[in-house]
TrEMBL record:
This is Dipeptide transport system permease protein DppC. It comes from uncultured Thermomicrobiales bacterium. The keyword Phosphoprotein does not apply. The chain crosses the membrane at residues 38-60, 103-127, 147-177, 220-245, 271-291. Keywords: Cell membrane, Membrane, Transmembrane, Transmembrane helix, Transport.
Amino acid sequence: MTVTSIAPGQPGRTVARVRPPARSFWRTAWVRFSRNHVAMVSALFLLMMFVVAAFATSVAPQDPNRVMILNQHLSPSGEHLLGTDESGRDVFSRLIVGARASIAVGLTAMIISIVIGSLVGSVAGFFGGFVDTILMRITDGMMAIPYFFLVLIVVAVFGSSFTNIVIVIGVTSWMVVARIVRSDVLRFRANEFVTAARSIGAGDGRLLVRHILPHAVPSILVAATLGVANAILLESALSFLGLGIQPPAASWGNMLSNSQAYIWDNPLLPLYPGLLILLTVLAFNFLGDALRDALDPQYREGGH
């Protein structure tokens, strides 16, 4: 956009000034996010973990399930970078393969919770009234139940397969997402662009999907990031209690559980999976906090 002004001391002479174009919402969010050095380090760490998890079988230097009793509790060496466990298995290889299991549980459970929570929250916020009351009372009821114990009961009854763990975590962790999405839908459903779309014949489904839900995406992204961290932590807790992913398959949680009996013989054995769980959960939390700051609605620059 170009505007003109009269140059000081030179009547009648105009000077063109070019006003820089306004940044888009997402570009502004990226600039704000990239200035957060902790968030950038967290994002790089998580990217590295995703790559390792995706190519775990190719990256692992040895067979993670190969048992060699004569190699129990070996110290770190060139052949075994982090030593071996109580069964002579390579700890480094099992950590790599365990990353795939733990991250897969976190991501899949998060997707389930986001889908359910977004559906419940958007319907409740958009239609309001009796529908809103019923759905929010169900949400409140679910939140009143200590969901960790609910997960324990369900897994104990139906088994601790990967599928069961993912489904149970996903269907018991959607309530916060539902409340967040409902709040955004309530805020945007009365906006002028929604009224304009309704006036030209847009139906409820189109209004919700095309004009309102896109504004909830930033909040959903933040909830998704924090949801992955919670799911990984919950899977680790289940595995530590013997109700998560079962050996010989490796996950960080069951590696931590198996190593507790040998903490005096090999004190580094529980340190490795515990440290990875800690760093990964912290990275997701730092990333979620940074996204919340970067995507705060007050920094939006108009439009929809």
